[in-house]
């Protein structure tokens, strides 16, 4: 393989996961040709005429949301997007139409487009993302390109039984995504086995890929990174008051929301002040009985979220099934002790930057929260170690680890 083809890696992800933008930026920075393909991306020049037509208040809100789909290190000239189609899908979703069916249609359409491109241009490699990459990975295999699957969450074949068990335990927290879907699970199994190589953000994800039959030598663990300049410990002394507990992520059964709320509710009144940031996926009624125990912010754009980390004292993320939660890296960089589960796929080391508790458990979680609320010295030691741990996982480290993997599986740029 020589010339332009050897240096070309095409990346596609129909969604708006911020760490996939970082993947695209890293591949570009390493000197590979190719583009980042997505459904919607905020190119200011393209959007300016549309935004100018909106009333000032609505324009500010729209710009705030569009900035979610922007990465400063990703060359906009090398981003291919289909903005109108995705804007229509998002609008339909806001109006209550389409749901998961429309999302799957979008992913399948994006996969078909990328498969056609792979057959036409035959890049050295194509990097796709789980649930939206089967056709592209099969096309890569047909034309002699390397199909790489970026498996951003534990494999569905492992996660589905965990979530169905959770549905039986806590049916009141059930949402649309918490159901049996044999067709999607089979698609994801075929996807993993079709890949010439898989990227896994954590050992947990690697283990789930091995469960479905992916050989260990076709999996590389690639932890995410964090902007340690933007996410920093608070300046100045801690304000007085109860322990400020923070959760950032989708409010859903998969994230262990029921166990977090029950743990907080079991603590002595006034011991903790809990803030949950993220979209509500569980039924609102399930949260209503815990209303006195938390404050909810439905949405905070990623470019603003660091302020909330800096204001907190502790980060809790009791996920049942995850990839490697970016919010945990951000919490560590912000000097926050972390309580999580092994299934969260975090880089937290037991007893050093925080604690790992069993999945689907209330008592151990409540005990750890209480311990950190009452032991300021312990909290301080873990906080200092958290920041030091984050410094091992900057986006520069991510790029260096990615460079080594790509050089091994595709050759140098």
Can you give a write-up of this model?
The chain is of the alpha/beta class. It folds into two domains: 3-225 and 395-409, Rossmann fold, CATH 3.40.50.2000; 243-390, Rossmann fold, CATH 3.40.50.2000. It has 17 helices and 13 strands. The chain has helices at 3-6, 18-29, 44-52, 56-66, 83-94, 99-121, 134-143, 156-169, 182-194, 203-211, 257-265, 284-288, 306-311, 326-333, 363-374, 376-390, 395-409, and strands at 9-12, 36-37, 79-80, 125-129, 146-150, 197-200, 219-221, 243-248, 272-277, 295-297, 314-317, 338-340, 354-356. The chain has a seven-stranded parallel β-sheet. Helix 10 (203-211) links the parallel strand 6 and strand 7 (219-221). Helix 6 packs parallel to helix 7 and helix 7 (134-143) packs parallel to helix 9. The radius of gyration is 21 Å and the shape is globular. The chain starts with a helix and ends with a helix. The mean pLDDT is 91.
């Amino acid at each position: 393989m020589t010339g332009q083809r050897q240096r070309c890696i095409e990346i596609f992800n129909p969604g708006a996961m911020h760490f996939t933008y970082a993947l695209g930026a890293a591949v570009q920075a390493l000197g590979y040709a190719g583009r980042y393909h997505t459904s919607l991306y905020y190119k200011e020049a393209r959007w300016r005429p549309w935004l100018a037509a909106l009333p000032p208040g609505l324009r500010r809100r729209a710009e705030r949301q569009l900035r979610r789909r922007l990465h400063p290190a990703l060359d906009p000239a090398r981003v291919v997007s289909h903005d109108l189609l995705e804007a229509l899908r998002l609008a339909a979703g806001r109006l209550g139409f389409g749901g998961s069916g429309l999302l799957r249609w979008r992913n399948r359409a994006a996969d078909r487009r990328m498969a056609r491109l792979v057959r036409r241009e035959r890049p050295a490699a194509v990097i796709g993302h789980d649930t939206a990459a089967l056709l592209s990975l099969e096309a890569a295999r047909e034309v002699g390109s390397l199909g790489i699957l970026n498996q951003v969450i534990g494999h569905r074949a492992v996660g589905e039984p965990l979530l169905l068990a959770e549905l039986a335990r806590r049916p009141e927290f059930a949402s649309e995504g918490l159901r049996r879907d044999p067709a999607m699970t089979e698609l994801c199994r075929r996807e993993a086995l079709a890949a010439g190589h898989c990227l896994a953000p954590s050992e947990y994800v690697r283990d789930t890929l091995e469960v479905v039959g992916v050989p260990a030598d076709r999996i590389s663990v690639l932890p995410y990174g964090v902007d340690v300049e933007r996410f920093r410990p608070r300046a100045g002394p801690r304000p007085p008051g109860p322990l400020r507990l923070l959760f950032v992520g989708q409010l859903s059964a998969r994230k262990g929301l029921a166990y977090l709320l029950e743990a907080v509710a079991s603590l002595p009144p006034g011991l903790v002040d809990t803030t949950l940031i993220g979209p509500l996926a569980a039924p609102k009624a399930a949260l209503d009985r815990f209303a006195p125990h938390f404050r909810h912010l439905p949405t905070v754009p990623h470019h603003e979220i660091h302020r909330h980390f800096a204001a907190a004292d502790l980060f809790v993320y009791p996920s049942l099934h995850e990839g490697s939660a970016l919010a945990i890296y951000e919490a560590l960089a912000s000097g926050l002790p972390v309580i999580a589960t092994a299934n969260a796929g975090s880089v937290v080391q037991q007893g050093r930057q925080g604690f790992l508790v069993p999945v689907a458990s209330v008592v151990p979680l409540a005990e750890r929260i209480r311990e950190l609320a009452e032991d300021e010295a312990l909290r301080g030691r873990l906080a200092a170690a958290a920041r030091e741990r984050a410094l091992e996982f900057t986006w520069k480290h991510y790029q260096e680890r990615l460079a080594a993997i790509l050089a091994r599986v595709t050759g140098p740029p």
